[in-house]
C-alpha cells in the first residue's frame, strides 16, 4: 500500500497560476494578437483608400489630355474650340456617370429642398413651387444628393396670395 494520496478529482475550471502582480501569459498573447490584427487592417484600409484615390485620378487624365488636344488643334478658330470643349464635356460627364454620379436638373418637377437650392423665383406659366429653370445641374449617387441643383422656381401669379410678387 502506498502512502501517497491521490489528488481529488474536481469539475472546477483550471485556476490561473499567475499572481496578481504577474499577468496571465495567454491573455498577453491574445491582446498582442488583437493589436496586430488591428494594425494590419488599418494598413489595409489606408492602402485601399490610396489605391482608390489613384484609380479615380487616373480616370481623369484622359479628360486633361482631351483639353490639351482641343487647345492644340483649335488654331484660334472659335468653332473648333467649341467643338473640342463639347467633346471634353461629354467625356467628363460620361466619366462621372461611370463612377456612379448621376446628373439631374429636374425642370418641371416640384421643388424639393433635399435636391434643390432655389436661386430665384419668377412668375411663370407653371404651378407654384415648380422648377422652371436650372442654373446649375445637381448630382446624386445611389439616390443620395451629392450636390443639389441650383434652380429657379415658379411662384403664384394670383394677387392676394402670399407667394405673389409685388410690382416694384
Kindly summarize this structure in a few lines.
Helix content is 41%, strand content 20%. With 168 residues, it is of the alpha+beta class. The strands form 2 sheets. The chain has a 3-stranded antiparallel sheet. A 3-stranded mixed sheet has the order 2-6-3, with no helix packed on it.
| Radius of gyration computed on alpha carbons | 34 Å
Low-confidence stretches: 163-168
Task: Give the helix/strand class.
Answer: alpha+beta
Helical segment count: 2
Oligomeric category: single chain
Explain how this protein is built.
With 168 residues, the chain is an alpha+beta fold. The protein has helices at 25-72, 78-98; strands spanning 101-104, 116-123, 131-136, 138-141, 144-147, 149-155. The strands form two sheets. The protein has a three-stranded antiparallel β-sheet. A hairpin with a 2-residue loop joins strand 4 (138-141) and strand 5. Helix 1 packs antiparallel against helix 2 (78-98). It starts with 24 loop residues before the first helix and ends in a 13-residue tail after the last strand.
